[in-house]
Amino acid sequence: MKQKRFESQNILNLILNYMKNQSVKLFKSLVMVFGIMLSCIHAKSQTPSDFWAAFEACSQVTALQSHYPSLSANQTRTHAVMNHGVTVPTTQGVTFSQIAVELYDKSTMLGMGKTHFFLFHDVKIEGSQAMFDVVYYYNFNGNYDQFVAATIKLTKTNGVWAVTETKIN
Questions:
Q1: How many CB atoms lie within 10 A of CB 33?
Q2: Domain definitions of the chain by residue range
Q3: Shortest CA distance to 106 belongs to which of 135, 84, 126?
Q4: Which fold has domain 46-168?
Q5: What is the CA radius of gyration of the chain?
Q6: What's this model's pTM, rounded to 2 decimal places?
Q7: Whole-number Cα distances in Å, 70 to 41, 65, 82, 96
């Protein structure tokens, strides 16, 4: 009788341990799914308008501007952006106040012979805070030796992005 009770107890313990392990696995899976859902919601909350408005503020940094090509009197500054490394949102439907933006993939950019362009290494936009890790290439002729690298932090207040910190690398 004791033998059967001992075996029953062992079987019950095995079943409980199995259920406990399965519950932990299920919980971990649910946490991971929830995390993915939150990141998707966050990514959707960052609009192309937010991205490009923050970029427009970044483009006003003096250390970058000093390398921009000269413009004639009534010309609008057009920035070429290489869409490579960091996925950049479309500019379609986005209104710029001081600049224009042309977005190209790497092969098109290099094939067109653009001599001045931006490349994003990292961009984070979370609520009213943003960080752009960007490189501006100038006088580009096939090698990447003339550039300004900057990490630019911004804050959005009353719907307007403003640069709060710039680190030239």
A1: 10
A2: 1-45, 46-168
A3: 84
A4: Nuclear Transport Factor 2; Chain: A, (3.10.450)
A5: 26
A6: 0.71
A7: 41, 10, 21, 20
Distances from the Cα of 30 to the Cα of 19, 42, 62, angstroms: 16, 18, 47
Q: Which two tokens stand for residue 93?
A: 């439907």
- Exposure string (b/e) for 57-75, b if CB count within 10 Å is 16 or more? bbbebeebeeeeeeeeeee
- Cα–Cα dist 114/166, whole Å: 26
Q: What does the pLDDT profile of the chain (169 residues) look like in tens digits?
A: 555 555 667 776 777 777 777 765 655 554 444 444 433 333 444 689 999 999 999 999 999 999 999 999 889 999 999 999 888 999 998 889 889 999 999 999 999 999 999 999 999 999 999 999 999 999 999 889 999 999 999 999 999 999 999 999 8
Distance between CA 132 and CA 153 in Å, rounded? 6
Please give the angle made by the CA atoms of 157, 123 and 158, to the nearest 5 degrees: 10
